[in-house]
Amino acid sequence: MSTYVIGDLHGCHAEFVRLLDAVNFSPTHDTLWLVGDVINRGPGSLACLQEAQALGSAVRCVLGNHDFHLLVVARGGGKLKKNDTLDDILASSQRESLLDWLQSQPLVVHEGNTLMAHAGLLPSWSAEQALTLSGEVQSALQSEHSGAFLSQLFGNQPDRFRDDLEGMDRLRCIVNVLTRMRFIDAEERLDFAAKEGLDSAPEGFAPWFQFPRQDDLRLLFGHWAALEGRTPHAKVNVEGLDTGCVWGGALTAMNLETGERTRVPSQQGGR
Predict the structure, then answer these.
(1) Residue limits of the Calcineurin-like phosphoesterase domain (predicted)?
(2) What is the pTM (predicted TM-score) of this model?
(3) pLDDT, tens only, 206-237
(4) What is the CATH number of the domain that holds 110?
(5) Which of 64, 133, 207, 239 is disulfide-compatible with 37, CB 3.0–4.6 A?
(6) In a domain, 270, yes or no
(7) Structural domain tally of the chain?
(8) Which residues, in sequence order, are bridge partners of residue 190?
């Protein structure tokens, strides 16, 4: 019985299937953790979402920014973007079931000393606080007002979490931390402009994992394809899983018990 965590799928279904075969994944014996962004940009978004849902209790998934984008488009009045590959999902006869499944997923998974979030975790947030804040967003997603929540979700402000934030400002900031964060400053202010490698950091900002924590929590994240799974000069116990499959890199699975990584090359040819 093994637990595997897989980086951003982004609709790369053929690679997903090959990777599950490569690790001899058994849904009756093993558990799969998905670090978010299951869909979008790749050609198999519908198939990836169907596969994840079909795994049932064998899968634990957190929401990524692209997953939220799908929910905003489908249920919050949002618009598709030029490079989206979501049409098959939106036109599927299983649309509502798949969207319901996606909308029921958390932003954080925590087990033992390991925590998974799509973008990472602020240095000042404990595992318990992250779970509580994720729960606040989950409550909004499951409420009868979820459409209004989704319609107001996107935005870059506030760019720093404070515990006295309320309403949509609070929820938007929680979602941005857990699904969009890359660079922060010493006051944990988020930058949303820089999206490339470490050399794209704005002055006064650094990757979130280069700021120390008060614990030794093991953190799993995806989101940042430009890092290719590396976390140089990290000051926390961290594992990057997004190795840029949709951009022509590879799809990576890590055995949580042994730390062994298995990769299958992308079939996307770069984008």
Answers:
(1) 1-121
(2) 0.97
(3) 999 999 999 999 999 999 999 999 999 999 99
(4) 3.60.21.10
(5) 64
(6) no
(7) 1
(8) 184
